[in-house]
Fold this protein.
Amino acid sequence: MKENILILHGGAPTAVINASLYGVITAAKQHPETGHIYGARHGTGGLLRDDLIELERIGEERLQKLPFTPGSAIGTSRDVLMAQEYARMAEVLEQRKIGCVLMTGGNGTMDACGKLFESCQKRGNGIRVIGIPKTIDNDLAVTDHSPGYGSAARFAAQSAKELSAEVASLPIHVSVFETLGRNVGWIAAASSLARDGDGLDPDLIYFPERAFDEEVFLADVERLSKEKPGIVVVVCEGLKNPDGESIVAPVFKDARWAYPGDVAAHLAAVIMRKLGCKARSERPGILGRNAVALQSAADREEAQLAGEEAFRAVIGGESGKMVSFHRVSDAPYRIETRLTDLSEVMLTERPLPDAFINAEGNGVTQAFIDWCRPLIGGALTEMTLLHDNV
């Protein structure tokens, strides 16, 4: 008997979320037991409204563009869900005769994935639910890394290198570059991958995993400013003071979300006010999570693999699991996929480990560089400076 499947996206888009979507669709179309391949329009809200897209009707020419399309091709959401919403989603799945659900997302989505699995279990409807990891923050537990991170990491590294070239060309200020990362510093750390021997890499990097001390920060900046006339400082949007509060008051708060203020602009102002030197801020924001021009090929391929493996798992009878990556080796780089119980992942945040942060708390260790380098999909743009050595 053929089974209808549903694909649902949750949370923020990435540069490769549609590669996972492509992986599911192509694997499903090749499987003889697949019936309809539905996509929920704009995530859980679409499922609650019974607003589904029949993805098997999409032509092959359009489907082949998915791995290179940023954002979510079927839409996504950050809906706040209560018990009655999970019951309603299960009801829609039953009415549509959907036997398999694949949910792509990060911490919040994996929590919703687990709760939908539990709701279906309680109803005894036999509907199977599998999670597909996706987050630029790279903070999902258990998995070595998450699809979406490699491309965000490549953006951070390439941008830091370009910014360093700019500052070296006109060395008259401190440039403060802010990366995404509400509570974790994985993306900020990735800016260190700009370091390839040409001198065009960030001078200082700060992470939420270390309490931010303004006086120590200013001492770091002042010391380096005496050694070189222009420096690049990378900071994470989630920097927190010793009390665990954001170093900048959020611009907006509601019951669930706090939207951080402009950390880079704040710190640039602190540098100018307290050190008396020029400083400016750069804050690419969501451009850094959707920059398909800097998409990591490795990230794209692994995102597609995650989608394919998720489909194979759910059609094979698995449920209540998430596809995860296990690293076999750094050099040569090799991973294996595994299935992890959703209960081990739901709302369990994975910070940057101590072994990846230097003793001063203002940079990374070689262990991080060795771990991260394979994820960004090859070397960055090669650059050279002439004014220093001609």
In short: The first helix runs from residue 17 to 29. The CA atoms of residues 72 and 138 lie 18 Å apart. The chain has two domains: 3-147+293-344, 156-290+351-376.
